[in-house]
Predict the 3D structure of the following.
Amino acid sequence: MSSETYVRAIDILLVEDNPGDVRLTKETLKRSKIHNNVIVVNNGEEAIAYLYRRDTYRNAVLPDLILLDLNLPKKGGVEVLAQVKEDPKLKHIPIVVLTSSKAEEDILKSYNLHANCYITKPIVLEQFCTVVNTIESFWLSIVKLPKEVA
C-alpha cells in the first residue's frame, strides 16, 4: 500500500497585456492535469515588481515558470528577460517567450538573453489552445523545475 504524497501547485507568472490571450491561457491551464496557480501581470514593470516582491507583491511566491510576451507596455519583454536572466536569484526560473512576433531578430535576441524557448502565438483559437496545452505538457509534466533559490 503506498501513501499519497502532497504535490504542490506549479506557480506560473503570465506576463501578458492582451486580455483575450490571458483568458485563453488561464482557461486552458485550468483544465490541466497538473495543479497550477496562474498569476497575471499586464506589463513589464509589474513583472519586475512581482519578481522582486515590491509594493503590493511583498508576499509573492516566486514562480516556477514565466510565460512572457515581448510586446508589453511600460517595460518590454526583452528588458524583463534580460533583467531576470542577469539576476542570480531569478535566473534559474525558466522563461517561455510566448509572443506574436515572428521576427528573426526577436528570436535571436531572446535566445541570446537565455530564454528557455520561443513560441509564436498562433492566431487561430484552437491552435492557441494546442500551444498552451503543449507548454503545459512539456514544462509542467516532463521537465523537472528547480525549487526557489535562497
